[in-house]
């Protein structure tokens, strides 16, 4: 294989951030244009042809439907372009999990699509941005990266979009995989996969929708009562996700109110506010009686994306929805 041609789609984030000082604590995300980042990578002598398109220049707290639509369209175009071997999306780390999840379930598992971010801005001492970017180029240009679904490259590890979870607010080692750990380890010069591609030839799980319905996340806490469920209902969501206690639990009155939400035709997914672990059916909560869906290995923010995409695709059968949450 010759030098890989990689399309970079930039959205902003800390990887494109600037502090204006190498030792400053504060910084602004999304300040560096993709052309400058590409020039920085090429100055390292990376053996890849890189071309970049700025989709957005925002901190990822401001990423949502208006950015996801053009991002998805540009990826679909790049996937269809025979001259392009892989795609990199530069992204803030705060909502990278959600963008990665959305792309993973709405794209075929063909050419590599790799999200990459950074925890330190480009001009900070010890910035991780250029290294993470060089690692992402290594992954996106590797023929063995095909058929693995969307991936996230951070801190010398490659994580599957479905597993990647941000677990630290400031460490450069900010992401972990659950339930699987990394798919591989990467440096700008080396790449080791821990197993073969497991999705080769898989089509997209769901059509990319025209819009995403409103789905709200309800965060459970000690002393909570059912009034918060009523407050959220006033927003008229199409469904709700419980960021529940432990195994996706909540006070009895809250669970009763959520069962009424299900009875009114709005699906409720029970997830957990705990960083790690699965939420399984009928453990402490009687999901069969209440009609809840258990999030299994998906955290609340990923569950929300999966529920939104299913609802947008007209999938409302609870058994089918549960099967999609069970699937990895
Ligand atoms: C952001 O998500 O845009 C800011 C934080 C980061 O990129 O690490």
Account of the 3D structure:
The protein is built from 9 helices and 14 strands. It has 328 residues and is α/β, with parallel strands linked by helices. The mean pLDDT is 96. The strands form 3 sheets. An 8-stranded mixed sheet has the order 2-1-3-4-5-6-9-10, sandwiched between helices. It has a 4-stranded parallel sheet with strand order 11-12-13-14, with helices on both faces. The protein folds into 2 domains: 189 residues, Rossmann fold (3-Layer(aba) Sandwich), CATH 3.40.50.1170; 112 residues, Rossmann fold, CATH 3.40.50.40. It starts with a strand and ends with a helix. Bound molecules: succinic acid (SIN). The site of succinic acid has 10 residues, from loops.
Residue runs with pLDDT of under 50 for 5 or more positions: none
Instruction: Give average pLDDT, whole number.
Output: 96
Instruction: Identify the bound ligands.
Output: succinic acid
Count, helices = 9
Shape: globular
Question: So what's the oligomer here?
Answer: single chain
